[in-house]
Amino acid sequence: MKTVTDVIQKLASKFQPDAAQGLSVVFQFVIDDSRYFNIHIADQQCLVNDLQHPDPDVTLIMDSQTFIEVIEGEVGGTSAFMSGRLRAEGDVMLATKLTSLFKRR
User: Fold this and answer.
1) Reported pTM
2) pLDDT interval class at 26 (50, 70, 90)
């Protein structure tokens, strides 16, 4: 069974630089109300940090199972949001770009 740590460690290798052209953004994740990490994308590079960012562009809040399912492509982010499994704060439209920035599976 995959863990949140397993999925986070593989994020950088799934990054698609061409999809990030002209983008400079910080995605903050809050998992199970206690685990923080962020993805900073700039200059077509992706940096994953295992900490809370002081000023993210968008914050995505969910439980660990939802996080794994969304990142692995088992559940769509929009579906998780609409069903209340995922909350977003800040620039919510940026959250819709997240799936295009990373390869699924």
Assistant:
1) 0.91
2) very high
